[in-house]
Structure formats: C-alpha cells, structure tokens
Amino acid sequence: xxxxxxxxxxxxxxxxxxxxxxxxxxxxxxxxxxxxxxxxxxxxxxxxxxxxxxxxxxxxxxxxxxxxxxxxxxxxxxxxxxxxxxxxxxxxxxxxxxxxxxxxxxxxxxxxxxxxxxxxxxxxxxxxxxxxxxxxxxxxxxxxxxxxxxxxxxxxxxxxxxxxxxxxxxxxxxxxxxxxxxxxxxxxxxxxxxxxxxxxxxxxxxxxxxxxxxxxxxxxxxxxxxxxxxxxxxxxxxxxxxxxxxxxxxxxxxxxxxxxxxxxxxxxxxxxxxxxxxxxxxxxxxxxxxxxxxxxxxxxxxx
Length: 303
What we know:
Layout: E1 8-11, H1 17-22, E2 31-34, H2 38-46, E3 50-51, H3 55-61, E4 64-67, H4 72-80, E5 94-97, H5 105-114, E6 119-122, E7 125-126, H6 128-134, E8 137-142, H7 145-158, E9 159-166, H8 170-198, H9 203-217, H10 239-262, H11 268-281
C-alpha cells in the first residue's frame, strides 16, 4: 500500500478531474498536477501544490499518478509521448487511468509500461461532478492485487466505493456496461417525456416523481441482483419476484405503447423494451409444447 509520505500526481483537471484532484491537495506526501490549460492549474498552485510542466515531470515527482484526460489518444500521449509519464517513471510507479477509453486500451498500455516495471490500472469512475466534489465516487478498478492495494489509500479520498473487478481492463469494461444503463435510460426518458407531454402531463412535475421514486426503489440498479446474466433457475429465490416484475412491466409497457399509438407517436424504445424485458430480468417466457408462452395474472402492486 502507498505510504502517506509517497507523493501523488494528477493529470487532467477538467470538470471531473479538478474536483478529484482537490481532494488530494493536503495529501501528506504532496500533490503534483499537470494540465495543458494553465488556468486549470492556478488554483492548485495557490494552495501549495507542485505544478508540473509536463507529464514527465509529474512522474519524476510521484509514485501514484491519476490520469483523467479526454480520450484514448490523449491517454496514450500522456503515457508514451516524448514528454510522457513513461519517459521518467520509476520502477514501482502505479498509473491509474480514470478516463473512459476503449476496452483494450488499458491492457495495451500496461504491456508497454511493464517493460519499465510500471504498473497500469484502469479506474474509471461513476458519480459525476457531484460525486467528484463530495468524494463519493464509485471507482471501477482493474489491475493486479498489489497495484490496487498501492492506490487504495489515495483512492479512499476520491470515492466511497473502490470495487476491484479483476485484471487490468476489467474496470473499463465495467464502466462501458454501467454507461450503457445510463444512456439507454436517457433515451427512454426522451420517449417517455414525449409521450407524457403529448398526453397533457406536466413533464417538470413528472421529473420530480421519477427522481423521488428512484431514490426509494434504487432505479435500474435495484434489479441487478444476479451473479450471472443467464436465465434464473425456477428454484432461485429471485425467480418469482422477477416473473412478477416482468409481467407487470410488460402490461404497463403495452399500455404506454397503446397510448402512444393513439397519440400518433413512435414508441420504438417501449416496443423493444416489451420484447426484451423478460430476458433482461433473467426470466424469459417459457414456450410450452403447444408453442404457447406462459402467462400469469399479476396484481397492480409495485414490486
């Protein structure tokens, strides 16, 4: 594990990176920062942090380095460019890639860094600016046990959940799956708002309802209770609960689709959801020998 006396570094002081880095300003071993925008580094300089002129200078000063830049090209340049981290990084340095990148990028860069006994971990985050400011991010980490232990203490300042998901690359794969939930849901929100507005509903007040109920139920994460994405066995304790959820959801989706059609709307997302809901929950409809799917009567109570 990193000693509190070991200096840390942070590269990329944008909307998420800056509040993350601020939580390390009083790190006992000191903080070195770098950003291509001088204005982004000025608040850190005023608070006594070392401002580096290049990623190479960060690596000369720090043993645990966080990288939060825009994309794969920038991550690669920060690590392997002429003034990149690997030009000066010492053996035993751990570089954490917080950026959301392509699934294979962390492992590719880890293989290059290993030639200098530098370890790469991928540690993308979830929680947005709010979590970055409050130190309540979730960090999805892929890397060796030793490297993850080395970053655990500084990462503890960045978030309240540090999930070690597997070898290098696992964190990025988890992030891509997590963001699929977010942005697919945003698309569904657009369709729902169109439906509600066309039906004469105050959509601002509907937003209040959705945020309130998601705080109570947990939103999409509340059904992520399985250890496998394969269909549930009927003996599983979740099976009957999820069958009830499926049947209720399919009914409600059919009602929303019918309303949308009456209003002349395209309900493509709702229609797709209706066909995929059972499989998504792990309880696809079983087909009987006479080629009929099972059906169950469900109550109106919310699962």
